[in-house]
Amino acid sequence: MTEQEENTKKTLFVPKVFSNMNSSKNSESSVSSYSRTVFLVLIHCVCIIFTIFITLQSRPGSSLFSWHPFLMTLAFSLFMSEAILIFSPYGSPIKTFTYRTKRQFHWILQVLCVSCALLGVVTIYYNKHLNGKPHLTSWHGVLGAGTVWVTILQSLAALPLLYHSLAKGWSLAKLKQYHSATGTLTYLLGSISLVLGLSSAWFTASVNGSTWYLIALCPVLCAFYMITQIKAGYSSKKRL
After folding, report:
1. Quick check: is 37 in a domain?
2. Quick one: which of 39, 114, 147, 162 has the most CB atoms within 10 Å?
3. Which residues form the Cytochrome b561 domain (predicted)?
């Protein structure tokens, strides 16, 4: 074989190798994207199932207290979770919509979250007042009350993202960074409050054993995913 023929063979072989490598990378990327989408759908289902389960346990309307677990679960397990998942590139119900539209949906869900949380606090406060019981006597009560206040402050502090004129001297990138950080903290506090609520006498009286652990795993799993999504989203923007 002449030197020219050898060079020709190498030239034909190299693109083929690169083509196989690109094909392999595309295949891996496709599998990774599919697995992330499946996991995100699972997270959606977990949030919904957990909310439905607590709703069935509390039976809202059966008593004044029954509105408290229902409203709090609706606020932090459903509305706040969906407000974060809206921005996911893998399984958001409105992932084809513009960022502006997603942001509007995010705010609507957050307003619903804050409204339900406030109503939940008012309900439990009034219920304890009627029954002559002391307030903030458990870790769930103290952390829950603190979480609601943090949620309200975090939502109010995010107003400059909509009206940038309210934060003169602050860059939009910095404001988004702080909003992501405080949002992560708020969701984590909400998830811990939900788990502590599952440890209350009201819930453990009807749910215990392996079922309790399975239900308690729901907010833990959701919190892990939400924090991972927020962190990954910020890291990708920082690289860009």
Report:
1. no
2. 147
3. 31-237
Domains contained in the chain, number: 1
DSSP-derived letter for residue 167 is S
Extract the tokens encoding 29: 């990327």
For residue 117, tell me if it sits in a domain: yes
Which residues fall within 8 angstroms of residue 119, CB to CB, at 6 or more apart? 67, 71
DSSP codes joined into one string, 31-65? HHHHHHHHHHHHHHHHHHHHHHHHHHHH-TTSSST
Given the structure tokens 């309900």, which residue do they identify? Answer: 123
- Angle at 49 (CA atoms; ends 47, 54), nearest 5 degrees: 95
The pTM assigned to this predicted structure is 0.82
Residue 208 lies in a domain: yes
Show the DSSP H helices in the chain as ranges: 3-58, 67-73, 80-85, 99-131, 139-157, 159-162, 172-198, 201-204, 209-239
- What CATH number does the domain containing 143 carry? 1.20.120.1770
Q: Is residue 5 part of a domain?
A: no
Domain that holds residue 107: 61-238
